[in-house]
Amino acid sequence: MTQTQSAASPPKTPRNKRNDEGMPLSRTNPVIEATMMLVPIANLAAAAVTAVLAASSGRNMLQTWSLSRQHANGSLPATEIMIDASDSTNEVVSKIQSMKRKELLELYMSSRGPQDLSEIAGEWNGHLLDNDSWIMTAVTGLLSNRMFGMGRKWNGKQFGKENDPQLGINRFHPRNANTKQQAEQSTITPTEHTFDMILRPSKLGARDMSLVLDYTKYQFPLSLWRTMMDEVRIVPLDNGEPRVLIGLGYMAWSGGRMNSSPFVLYRAVEDARDQV
Fold first, then answer.
1. Which of 102, 60, 111, 107 is nearest to 256 (CA)?
2. Is residue 210 part of a domain?
3. Is residue 10 part of a domain?
4. Which residues constitute the domain of residue 71?
5. According to the UniProt record, where is the region Disordered (predicted)?
6. Closest CA to 92 of 248, 239, 260, 205
7. pLDDT band at 32 (very low <50, low <70, confident <90, very high)
8. Rounded to whole angstroms, how far apart are CA atoms 154 and 165?
9. Is residue 6 part of a domain?
10. pLDDT for res 39
11. d(Cα 102, Cα 93) in Å, to the nearest integer?
């Protein structure tokens, strides 16, 4: 009986079985094997990036909250840029670009809001500033230049649009302007993303007056930019003229004003650095 059952059993497949061309057969597709190995690595990398972003955002929010509380209590020292009468707008902008996020927030809180919209009407060039860490600064650049600008580098704002002093719009470098020279030679300044301009107290610090830019009405419901807000103030230069503005941009889904990103604006007609 045992011999009969043994004889009826199917023969075992040899481990070195080969195909018709004489090549050894693989039990598992190598592409599938490689993919299965990469999946946990990708998941681990994504988790690490998420953790770093969360930690950096938390640091920014704590920093903003602390400075805002100090300013509200009157314990935050005023931060001003002391310049000589001969200093150009370019030199002022350079000083601001060298500041860290903490200093930029202090500068914003010690600056003043416009008295009326006509004071800052016109076109302003702009630069993104330090956002406390390399990863947050890089994310801000990605959002502003690649996504918000659809591949066009952000280049400031226009205050006053289509004969309506209460509307503004963002300015961008042309998509093919890859160098400073190309940007200077271009006569076209693309614009996109309209906003309402509202003078009202800021919710940061001592609730001083700010120019608030509200994008809500001009974005569709599922847009990333629907909850975007900017707050802008005039940098207190020696002569008090509104040549340079300091701003904070934020969105509700990324932490709101507590996780705001600083930027600087200067009049487009000024002799200021226009990096691309």
1. 60
2. yes
3. no
4. 48-267
5. 1-26
6. 239
7. low
8. 22
9. no
10. 59
11. 17
